[in-house]
């Protein structure tokens, strides 16, 4: 009998992620040691039990009718009697006497002994007591479970009673399936070994044909199992186990292809079969309660589905771990070079499950597994994971999955001492935190209730009473539904936002010189309207020190400026702060934009201009506004067409916000002094003494939209009349226009019209002259020339 099965449950998938390899090895050694000790104790106990049962049950050997103790002086007489012949008795009589002696058990006691007649009864009772003291546990016969009954006592002693435990039909089916699977595995191994031997003597072309044939057979097998599960999931859910077993394909020629196909097939099966709710384990009371047959089938289906889904995720995790550790197991059919492709497919399957089943079991485990891969050295795997989490943030309306992901990202950034890729933090820009207010307003009750005057006019006393009770109930239901949804969302989004700002502030405090600073500044600019007022002063001081240090690039400085003005245009209106220094920084940085790589910074400049000039027009002086309008018109001369369109649209918005800037369209000088274009202070550059002559040059631009905007601005940017813009251009924001006319795809937007083609006269070869006589003369000359040559 082998050692008993350990009752200790297998560690969960989440605990396996947090447990180190050394700890797992120590646990395994301790478990094996305990099993050996318990098995040794059980063997000793079974040996003791067998000896006790053997002494209690064994029948006494038959004795002759009379037994005498031989005396020393009778030994010679016995030898003499034994030597006498026995032919005085016949053979039949001798057999009869021996058989009677065997059956006469009541006279087989030792007559020569001096013990009392009833002493055997006492011995039997003592044996019974000793037997009762021993545990009633027998060794299993032929590995079958046995139920031990009370023993039976007869004249010969105690006879143990036992019956074989009845096996249910389900257990028999499971045993048969296991036997079939073992047989199938053995057959596959034999086939693989035989195939490996047979492939040695084939040519390259024959090997390729054999491989294609095997792959086709495996595809048909995978398709048959998958279609069976999808057609009837409750009845055929056990086929998932058989399909999952194909992940251990041992044939080296087709192992990589088959494993990839099986991983993708299982992923699609789980996406189709998984329910739209989370499956929880049954309680003890629910397990013991009798339910309908359909309910029991559904419970069994859910239990098998969750277990197989868990094993599938563990298989994918093991593939990724083997790839990361460059670890090759014994008897492995896949070489180390092929692990990269398997790991890429495994990551793709995990990302698909992350997006398709955010409500199902083990979703947090998938997040814990994929977040470290966002910082992987392999660019393909990293981009795959980052894109998946961006999509998850966009489609997550409740916020639970976003909160779990942000927590894991925060722990990853802290554990790696802020040495992570910037793309990891850029994924946080896709969070739907700023949409909370819209979602809450949409859930407010919109039902209109009658007031007292309307009730008194239109309803009777009894109807008013019923109407009052009905409206009270409706209000309670609406408030309960809206408040629960609102409170839950607010709680989740508040925790998510706190974790995001915790990551950003840690990097600003401890790693402000790292490569993560642009992503942090961009994130602060994105979520600045949600920052608490208590942090405004400290944050503004930190951003101002960063800009003045001169260590930031153009893009980082623009993100700092955008963050500051986003704060001041939102809750920061209550603060009495004049951000003149930030206006000066942006005014100084505008000429650095050009038609090269910095063209990507134009969209940040457009957002800053919208926040600084349009939304804060009451806090901006006219001198500052005119200086920005003049510098923007100068900037539009040396930018790409998409950037020029956006800058001219921002100039149009500034002219509408500050109507007095229209005298820049006149040549007359306003006031004393002259314009200082090289001065970086917008308040003292005397922009009122110049004109927007750049608009006249832009009217001859090669881009039609730029020409249209330049002509529109040179006439004062009117809203009506012949010089007004069309509806499509006038209603779009500068950022939208910049994106619509982008040149990233190396295409001209709008497309260039083809030049008109002139019809040319085509001369026909042959008799093409109008004068017939001249044509005859030419033909005659040519004919005589050919004859003379011949």
Describe the structure.
The protein is an all-alpha fold and 790 residues long. It contains 32 helices and two strands. It has a domain at 531-741. The protein has helices at 13-18, 21-57, 75-82, 91-103, 119-133, 169-199, 204-231, 233-236, 239-245, 255-273, 284-288, 293-325, 339-356, 363-370, 379-395, 400-415, 422-426, 436-442, 452-458, 461-510, 517-527, 536-549, 554-569, 580-589, 602-614, 622-635, 641-657, 694-698, 704-714, 727-730, 734-740, 772-789, and strands at 146-154, 157-164. Strands 1-2 form a two-stranded antiparallel ribbon. β1 and β2 (157-164) form a beta hairpin. α26 (622-635) runs antiparallel to α27 (641-657). The longest helix is centred in the middle third of the chain and has 50 residues, at 461-510. Mean pLDDT is 78; it is low at 62-70, 104-127, 137-142 and 436-447. Residues 218-312 form the Nucleolar complex-associated protein 3 N-terminal domain. Residues 26-47, 160-211 are annotated as: Disordered. One of its GO terms (biological process) is DNA replication initiation. Residues 171-191 have a biased composition (Acidic residues).
Shape: extended
How are the strands of the biggest sheet laid out side by side? 1-2
Tell me the structural class. mainly alpha
For the report, how would you describe the main beta sheet?
2 strands, antiparallel
Share of helix, binned = 55-70%
Number of helices: 32
Low-confidence stretches: 62-70, 104-127, 137-142, 436-447
**What Rg is obtained from the alpha carbons, in whole angstroms?**
47 Å
Beta fraction: under 5%
Task: Find the count of extended strands (DSSP E, 2+ residues).
Answer: 2
**Overall pLDDT metric:** 78
**Alpha carbon gap, first and last residue:** 115 Å
Protein name: Nucleolar complex protein 3 homolog
Main location: nucleus
Pfam family, one: NOC3p
GO cellular component, one term: nucleolus
């Amino acid at each position: 009998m082998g050692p008993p099965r350990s009752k200790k449950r297998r560690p969960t998938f989440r605990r396996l992620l947090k447990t180190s390899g050394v700890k797992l090895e120590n646990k395994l050694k301790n478990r094996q040691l305990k099993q050996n000790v318990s098995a040794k104790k059980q063997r000793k106990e079974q040996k003791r039990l067998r000896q006790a049962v053997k002494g209690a049950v064994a029948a006494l050997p038959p004795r002759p009718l009379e037994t005498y103790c031989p005396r020393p002086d009778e030994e010679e007489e016995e030898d003499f009697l034994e030597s006498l012949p026995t032919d005085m008795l016949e053979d039949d009589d001798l057999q009869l006497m021996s058989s009677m002696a065997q059956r006469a058990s009541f006279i087989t006691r030792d007559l020569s002994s001096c013990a009392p007649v009833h002493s055997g009864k006492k011995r039997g009772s003592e044996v019974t007591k000793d037997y009762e003291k021993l545990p009633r546990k027998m060794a299993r016969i032929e590995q079958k479970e046995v139920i031990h009954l009370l023993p039976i006592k007869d004249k010969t002693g105690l006879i143990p009673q036992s019956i074989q435990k009845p096996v249910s039909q389900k257990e028999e089916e499971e045993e048969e399936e296991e036997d079939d699977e073992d047989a199938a595995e053995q057959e596959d191994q034999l086939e693989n070994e035989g195939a490996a031997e047979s492939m040695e003597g084939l040519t390259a072309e024959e090997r390729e044909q054999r491989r294609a044939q095997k792959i086709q057979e495996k595809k048909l097998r995978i398709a048959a199992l998958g279609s069976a599960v999808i057609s009837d999931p409750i009845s055929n859910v056990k086929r998932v186990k058989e399909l999952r077993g194909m992940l251990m394909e041992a044939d080296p020629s087709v192992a990589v292809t088959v494993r990839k196909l099986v991983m993708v097939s299982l992923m699609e099966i789980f996406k189709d079969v998984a329910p739209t709710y989370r499956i929880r384990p049954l309680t003890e009371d629910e397990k013991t309660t009798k339910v309908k047959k359909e309910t029991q089938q559904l419970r069994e289906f859910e239990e098998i589905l969750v277990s197989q889904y868990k094993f599938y995720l563990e298989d994918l995790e093991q593939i990724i771990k083997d790839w990361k550790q460059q670890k090759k197991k014994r008897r492995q059919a896949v070489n180390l070079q092929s692990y990269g492709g398997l790991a890429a497919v495994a990551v793709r399957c995990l990302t698909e499950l992350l997006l398709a089943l955010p409500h199902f079991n083990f979703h947090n485990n998938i997040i814990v597994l994929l977040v470290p891969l966002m910082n992987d050295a392999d660019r393909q795997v990293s981009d795959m994971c980052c894109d998946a989490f961006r999509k998850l943030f966009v489609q997550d309306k409740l916020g639970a999955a976003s909160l779990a992901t942000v927590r894991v990202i925060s722990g990853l950034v802290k554990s790696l001492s802020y040495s992570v890729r910037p793309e990891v933090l850029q994924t946080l820009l896709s969070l739907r935190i700023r949409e909370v207010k819209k979602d809450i307003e949409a859930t407010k009750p919109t039902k209109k209730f009658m007031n007292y005057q309307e009730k008194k006019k239109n309803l009777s006393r009894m109807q008013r009473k019923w109407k009052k009770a009905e409206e009270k109930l409706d209000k309670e239901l609406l408030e309960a539904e809206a408040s629960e949804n609102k409170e839950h969302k607010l709680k989740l989004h508040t925790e998510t936002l706190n974790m995001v700002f915790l990551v950003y502030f840690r990097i600003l405090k401890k790693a402000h010189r790292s490569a993560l600073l642009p992503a942090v500044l961009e994130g602060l600019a994105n979520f600045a309207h949600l920052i608490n007022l208590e942090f405004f002063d400290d944050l503004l001081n930190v951003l101002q020190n960063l800009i003045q240090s001169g260590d930031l690039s153009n893009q980082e400085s623009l993100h700092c400026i955008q963050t500051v003005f986003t704060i001041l245009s939102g809750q920061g209106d209550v603060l009495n702060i004049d951000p003149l220094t930030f206006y000066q920084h942006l005014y100084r940085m505008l000429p650095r934009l050009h038609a090269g790589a910095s063209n990507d910074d134009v969209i940040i400049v457009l957002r800053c201009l919208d926040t600084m000039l349009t939304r804060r027009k009451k806090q901006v002086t006219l001198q500052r506004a005119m200086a920005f309008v003049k510098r923007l018109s100068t900037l539009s001369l040396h930018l790409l067409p998409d950037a020029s369109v956006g800058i001219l649209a921002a100039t149009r918005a500034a002219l509408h916000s500050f109507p007095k800037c229209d005298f820049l369209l006149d040549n007359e000088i306003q006031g004393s002094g002259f314009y200082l274009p090289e001065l970086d202070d917008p308040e003292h550059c005397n922009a009122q003494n110049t004109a927007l002559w750049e608009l006249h040059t832009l009217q001859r631009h090669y881009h039609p939209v730029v020409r249209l905007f330049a002509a529109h601005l040179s006439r004062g940017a009117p809203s009506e009349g012949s010089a007004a813009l069309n509806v499509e251009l006038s209603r779009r924001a500068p950022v939208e226009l910049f994106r619509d006319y982008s040149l990233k795809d190396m295409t001209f937007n709008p497309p260039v019209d083809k030049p008109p083609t002139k019809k040319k006269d085509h001369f026909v070869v042959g008799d093409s002259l109008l004068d017939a006589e001249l044509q005859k003369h030419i033909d005659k000359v040519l004919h005589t020339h050919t004859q003379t040559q011949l």
